[in-house]
Every structure is written in structure tokens, then in C-alpha cells.
Amino acid sequence: MEYFIQQLINGLTLGAIYGLIAIGYSMVYGIIGMINFAHGEIFMIGAFISLIVVLLLNSFGLSWLPAVLIIVLVMAMVFTSLYGLAIERIAYRPLRKSFRLAPLISAIGMSIFLQNYMQLLQGARVKPLQPMITGGFTLIDDGDYTVVLSFLQIIIIITTTIIVILFSFIIYKTQLGREQRACAQDRVMAELVGINVDTTISVTFIIGAALASVAGFLYLLYYGVVDFFIGFLVGIKAFTAAVLGGIGSLPGALLGGLLIGLIEVFWSAYFSIEYKDVAAFSILVLVLIFRPTGLLGRPEIEKV
Amino acid sequence: MIQRQKQNNFNKELKDALLTALITFALTVLLFGVRTVQQPGKLGIETRWSWVILSVIAAFFGRLFFVFCTGLINNKGSYFQGVADNITKIGGTVKILTTVILVLTAILLPLLPFSDRYVIDIATLVLTYIMLGWGLNIVVGLAGLLDLGYVAFYAVGSYSFALLAHYHDLSFWVCLPFAGLFAAMFGVILGFPVLRLRGDYLAIVTLGFGEIIRVILLNWYQFTGGPDGISGIPRPAFFGLEFKRIPPEGTASFHTFFSIEYSSLHRIIFLYYLILLMAFITNLFVIRLRKLPIGRAWEALREDETACRSIGINPTNTKLTAFALGAMFAGFAGSFFASRQGFISPESFTFTESAIILAIVVLGGMGSQIGVVIASIVLIGATEFFRELEEFRMLVFGALMVAIMIWKPKGLISHRAPTVRLHT
């Protein structure tokens, strides 16, 4: 039982990170109907930018933790969202009217490019960061197994909650969000009523990238290591989460993220840690075959 | 009046370039400007601001130049378009000529004066990729299904040969058909449930499948040897004649049978001709298939699935054959690869490999046979010769894939229009 509770806590923490990335996949898919294959790489860039900002702040001698966390978070969001913007502008916008697979191939190219770009710039070796936040609450201690809720996990879950509430507010309550949702429902109609579709799509990419960068920062804090290749696996798992929750649906993406996090952690805890990636991929395949609309998605009607 | 408009235009372009420079600055200031380095005990940083400054300057002038050039093309669009059309038009004779030259060079390569071991080795590698490219071309180019896990079938082919040889002591020639068969079978098993998915979902699922295969190969230690791989895979023999200096008791070796001096080059040349033959067969097969009803159905399916359905083509079965045949050629190529290396491990079957094969097909022009050849020679051959550029290879591949999709989505070298069109 104690073991189960501990895994539940770990799974929710990991799921929060996946959920943040999944939102980006889901929003982009909702608005332009493409899988942004490079989104995992945006997450990776977010993690690297966070790492660099942390090291820079350390070298300036700033060490008051709350200040460091907030500065890193803001800097990572700003700089990473610019990457999202640039990628959309360079690799996807010229392809709006191209054939179906063109944006996807372009996105794959972008993803390969960004991985190697980071490898060349920052080196191929794993970058370890000393743990910044240590300690935690001991929830249950019955002598042979202690259940610990670490401060780090609390911070990850709280940050995720705040960020998600903030962005839900933007999407559901502001003019910007209304335009964004209008474009997702019917792009041509939105254009006819005077919404600047190009800007709206750019904003979607910026929001997606900002959320991914938060995930990158939290990942860096949680695991303490980053390398140029993390975006690939995490990206696929987050995509699985978006599909599981129902692609195009925001609450769905978050729910899917939490589920994937839980599944992965429980799978590694009770079955085999070697095959944990197989679990995520199998779920992706199963969901796509049996329920392609996901848990909360609406069925898509194929138009001729 | 015109003067003022020009002035305005120039101001606009300048502003545009400044904005680009500003964004470039923001993009590069942290990642170019600061480099993380491992210091004793912790991670430290070094700065290199010169890189930031250089890239900002490059972006500013690059953008200015780009805007200037596109302006020129817009003004004289017809001229450039004319040139481009002409290039496409010469196609006919030049294409035949290129094909003849390429085929002759390929056949005579080992006899040419500059061909040493190194050149033949690279040519063998290029041919392996050409074969893989042709195989993937069936799936991506003809049937229009984006397969990101093609390397999985390559791995299945390699491992089926290696395992059959390892456990049952079978030779290359016996295993070759089995390798193709197993790979095709995997293609069907995977394809059956997922082929009804839409194009982009299919791509991700195939990617997932490729990774699953690799993870299983990596972790099933007792059977596949895990990360250690399988070594001591037998080399192919020439009609039962092996390429060994000292043949086993009672058998003849290649050099003793033909009574020639032993040379390790014999095997290399033999392997080269073997893959050349396999590639030719693949090509012939694909060209013939394209003219059969099934090939026509693939192309029709690529162009319009709904229309196909309404004239009674079963999309799932049609896609399945494309998937299985593509997989089969990957299986053949895989067993050749295993036999040539003598050692395989899951390391050789990563997503990067799939991406390289896809890049070859995309750059060559989806569906074009000759395009695959030229793209393989350029992408594989050139990077093998310029080893020092190795680390930039994938960077360039990625950038090229984006660039091709933007400027010439039908492929840089050549492209394959549907074999038959009702209207032009």
C-alpha cells in the first residue's frame, strides 16, 4: 500500500510534466491539423535554456531560491516561445497550402535539425545539475517503507497547476483565446469575420512553446540531467498523452498526460523498467486503433 | 513618386531585416553565447559572444539579401520560371543518358583504376541505401504512406538472418528469402491494425513500432544478445565457394577453385556485386509493379483515397501490400547488411537511420527511382568522403528536408507524376 501511494505521487509528478507538453501538441493540432513533430525538441530547448539561466544566475551569485525559480521560469518561457515562433514562421507557415504530408515531413526535418543544432552548440554529453531543492514531507513511515512527498514534487505540481490555470484563463476568457478557438473550429470562417489567422496561429505556437519550456524546466529540476536527445522520447510520450486525452482538447491533454505518467510509473514499478517505453507506445497504438478520438475528444467527420 | 515608393520599400526591407536580426539575437544569445562545460565536480559555463554577434550580422544581411532576391524573382518571375520549366523539360534524353552512365559506372566500378578497397566499401554502403530507398519509395512515394519506422523492417531482416545463422547454422542464401518473408510478415502484422489510420497518425504509430522493436532487441538478452548484439555472422558464399584464405577441410575456397592468388579484395568485390544485383532486382520489381493494377491502385490511393473507395479499391488491402512489399525489401537489405558487417546490434537500427532513408526518398523526389540513386550518392557518398563534416551531417539533412518541402515539395532531383492521368 505504501509503495502504491509513493508510486502514485511519482506518477502524478511525471504526468504533470507530460501534460504540459501534451497541451502544446493538442493546441497546434486543433488549429492547423498537423502533428508538430518538433514540439519535443522545443521542450528540450526549454530545458537547456533553463539550465543555462540557472548556471548564469549562479555565476552572478544569486542564490535566493524563489527568485531563481521565477527568473528561470520567465526567461525560459520568453526565449523558448521565440523558438516556437521562429519554427512556425520558417518551417510551417509556407506549407499551409501544400499537400498533406508536407508539414509533417518538414516538422521531422525541423526536429532532426534542432537535435543536432543543440548537440553542436552544447555538446553531446549529459549535463548534470546539482539538485536545487532537497528534502520533503514524510507522509507515512511504518518502519520498512517510507512514503515521501518531496518539496520538489510539490513545486512541480503547484507550478503546473498555476500555469495551467493561467493559460486556461487566456484561452477561455480573453479576446486572444476566443480568436484562437474560433480558428480551431473553422479557419476560413474566422478569417471572414476579420480574425488575423496568421497571428493567431503564431500565438498558438508561442503558447505551446511556453508551456513546453515550463515542462522542460520542471524536468530539469526533477531529473537533474538533460541532453540533446531527451525531446524525442518525452515528445512521443506527450503526443501519446494528447491522443489518449483526445487531440484538440485541452483538459483531455492534461488528463492524458497524468494517465501516461501514472501508467509509466506503475509499469516500471510493478512490471519491468526496461520495457516502460514499450508501454507508452503500445498505449498509443491501442488508443489509435480502438478509440482514435481519445477520451475527451470529439469525433472527426471526414470532409470530401 | 516612384522614387519615394522605392525609398519606402527600402525602409520596409530594412525594418524587416532589423527585426530578423533582433529575433536572431534573442534566439542565439543564450544558446550560442553561453556554453555549458563540465568542470571538476560541477557544471560550469563559458561565454562566446562572438558567435552571437556573427550570427546576428549574418541574419541581418541574409534577410536583406533574401528579401532583395525574392523581389527580383517576383519582378522577373516569368524568366526564372521559364528556366525551371526548361530544366524539367530536358528530362527525357538526359534522364536516359544519366541512367546509362550510372548503370555502366556501377557495373564497372571495381575495375576502374581509382577503385580501392575504400571506394568499393563506400559504393556498397551507398547501394544498400539505394535499395532501402527504393523499398521505402514503394510505401512513401507510390502509396503515399509516411513510414517513420522503416528501419524496424531492416532490423527484422538483419536479426532473422543473424539468429537463424546463430541458432540453426544456416547460410546466407538459405536465410535471405526467410529474412524478406519475416520482414513482410511484420509489415502485415503491424499494418493490418494501423493502416486505416489517417496519414499523420500512421507516421507516429510506425515510429512507435520502430522503437518497440529496438527496445525489445535491446532487452531480450537471452535471445538477441541485447546491447552486445550478435557476432560471427557467416559471410555469403559464391555458389558454395567461401572467401577464406584457408578453406575448411574438404571444400574449395574461391581462390583455390579458380586457381588465383588469394586477396581479401575478392570478398569486397563480391559483396559489391551482390548488393548491386539485389538493388537492380528491387528496381526492376518496382518498375514492373508500377505498371500492374496494384501499382496503379497505390498511386490512385495516394492521389485520392475517397475516389478510390468509391470505385471499389479496398484501401486497407492495397496499403497492406505496399507496406509488406516495402518491408520485404528492407528485410533483404537487412540480411545483406548483417552478412556484410558480420556483427549487428540494436545500435544500428535507431530512428536516425529511418530518418536518413526518409531524407533520401524525400530529397530524391517521392516516387522517383533515379532520384533515390542520386540522393543516396550525394547524401551518403559525399558525407562518407568528407568525414570531418560528419557531425554536421544530420543537421544538414534536417535543414534540407525543411527546405525541400518549402521550395520543391515534389523533390529536388526528379519527381514522379501519376503514371496515368485522365486530364492534364
Features:
heterodimer; A: 304 residues; mainly alpha; two-stranded antiparallel ribbon; 11 helices; B: 424 residues; ABC transporter involved in vitamin B12 uptake, BtuC; 2 domains; two-stranded antiparallel sheet; 16 helices; globular
Task: Write a structural description.
- The complex is a heterodimer of chains A (304) and B (424).
- Chain A is mainly alpha-helical.
- Helices cover 73% and strands 5% of the residues of chain A.
- Chain A is built from eleven helices and four strands.
- Chain A has a two-stranded antiparallel ribbon.
- In chain A, β2 and β3 (146-150) form a beta hairpin.
- In chain A, α3 crosses α8.
- The longest helix of chain A is centred in the first third of the chain and has 31 residues, at 2-32.
- Chain B has 424 residues and is mostly helical.
- Chain B folds into two domains: 2-75, no CATH class; 116-407, ABC transporter involved in vitamin B12 uptake, BtuC (Orthogonal Bundle), CATH 1.10.3470.
- Chain B is 72% helix and 4% strand.
- Chain B contains 16 helices and four strands.
- In chain B, strands 1-2 form a two-stranded antiparallel sheet. A two-stranded antiparallel sheet of chain B has the order 3-4.
- The longest helix of chain B is centred in the first third of the chain and has 32 residues, at 77-108.
- At the A-B interface, α2, α3, α4, β1 and α9 of A face α1, β1, β2, α7 and α14 of B.
